[in-house]
């Protein structure tokens, strides 16, 4: 694991795709994230593309264009089949040389400009899918601020359980209901036991919430029975997306003991469609720190490299726009803004090392959710459960409405971006979806 900055990260790089050079663009030439798309209304199989400015480089078309170097042609043939997982499994050396090839091809003055200009689509003209086949999905709990605030509500006397500072806490979630940004979903119903009732009832959730998270994708997997040491964990991480782990708090509080969340979490989850790669994120790595007053990670979760650059500086935001706000032309309101450097108690590499320490085999396309990334201060909370203090302090909106939890018609949008002096700003795009009314029962 080492911080590898190269010519692809240079601030001075510009693309012949001119929309990539605009101020504030999420997808400048320094980013180069991967996604899958098809034409709107078509049943075509999915095509892998690279976001560049407001366009997408279609890798199926690009594979037939001239000018690619030998080491780019082999992975490009794989990507042209639409199988992003197969490319993800090829490992970091291939990923890095492919990124260099893409960067050269998309730079101003590239000899491939003429041929590749015929391989572009407008992002607004295609439908994005989940970026790869997600085999397994694990959700962690890596913000100690979220864990403490939520713990206080569920267990006032015992908010942070004693294992938290030793183990990256997680549970196995469900991959089938993870959907791409733009896929709306119906409010779930489930068993709810109200505090003053002796028995639970089956009702639509009244405490539907969002969770502001990142989803880290596994690239090259590990063999069954073999662990990934912390020092090699980065070689098994492909990149990250924004992830909204929609949560029904009233279903959750009744069902979560003793085995953890189940139907309160698995009805829908939303990801942003572009995987920002670990190579793209390299300039925004920061030290992983642990106060000397806190337990230090066990040796299998500790290394010099992890301490120096195991964490990432990614700014994350959540925005809400209610149905009434849309009707009245009121723009979305930001609910929170935080940075992963302030919110993350365990680094992505530590999640991989811990997940495999027992021999569990991760596979290309597995997704590791970060858990709700709340920072320590007001305005940095990554869920309404924290913002409204479980409904005690409803949030006031410019439309005159109040929210303790989400209402039907609310659109919740996550955004994320990285900034560092001397480097380009890169973004994640967005993960957005609208809550629809509960479907009629049965
Ligand atoms: Mn979660």
Largest sheet: 8 strands, mixed
The percentage of residues in β strands lies in 15-25%
The radius of gyration is 22 Å
Task: Describe the oligomeric state of these chains in a short phrase.
Answer: single chain
Mean pLDDT: 96
Q: How much helical structure, as a percent, in the residues?
A: 10-25%
CATH superfamily of the largest domain: Fumarylacetoacetase-like, C-terminal domain
Q: Using the coordinates above, name the CATH class of the largest domain.
A: Alpha Beta
CATH arch. level architecture of the largest domain: Alpha-Beta Complex
Any idea what the shape is? globular
The kinds of small molecule bound in this structure are: manganese (II) ion
Number of domains: 2
Q: Give the N-terminus to C-terminus distance in angstroms.
A: 51 Å
Low-confidence stretches: none
The CATH topology annotation of the largest domain reads as: Fumarylacetoacetate hydrolase, domain 2
Q: What is the structural class?
A: alpha+beta
List the total number of helices. Answer: 13
Q: How many strands?
A: 26
List keywords for this structure.
SH3 type barrels; binds manganese (II) ion; eight-stranded mixed β-sheet; Fumarylacetoacetate hydrolase, domain 2; alpha+beta; about 450 residues
